[in-house]
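User: Continuing from earlier, I have the next pair ready.

Assistant: Great, send them over.

User: Here they are, in order.

Assistant: Folding the first of the pair now:
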Amino acid sequence: MAATAPAPGEMLMAQAARKKVNQTVSDIGARQEFEPGTLAGPGL
């Protein structure tokens, strides 16, 4: 069985996971602007 590409469902899951990670990173960046020092330091 040679699957050359992931199933559409798997691709959607991966896409959603990436989007969630990007959103989390954005949230952390925004929060650091207002609450410096409450999260992991610079470089994260």
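And the other member of the pair:
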Amino acid sequence: MEFQSKNVNVFFHRVDEGISKAEEASGKHSQRHEHHLPAPGEASISKTELNQLPIYFYNPDWFNNWTSGQKRQFADVHQVAFFPDASSLLLGKQHPDERLSNKGFTQKYWDKTIETYSILHEIENDDELDADSNTNDKSYELKDIAAEEFEDKEVE
């Protein structure tokens, strides 16, 4: 599918290979269907784009051709997963990034992901809208007060 990231396809192919090897080693055989990538240049039959998936699922070139509204419709821009190069994953040895702390891993991949998918503007706009709507909405204050009262009761 033209909208799906090649990196994600490589990752799922590696997962399928790993499952097959584990089944062979244990002597078990399942009836699962193996996923195969279409030959290059072969168009997918399905023309329906999948909506509200994590951003790394989509091909960056395909994704960046859309308007801001379409980007929000297709992908959940707030659900960003840092997906390193899949060709170096699931090889039976520890990936160097596994030693990084969560903060270090995020710092390493944040700029690359935001730049690749051109979504920094989307996130900043959404944050501004959320801040504006929260300042005018008194229900947030009531929810905060109720939450504090509930927490106080749990502590006692």
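Worth noting for the second one:
The CA atoms of residues 28 and 136 lie 60 Å apart. Residues 6-118 form one domain.
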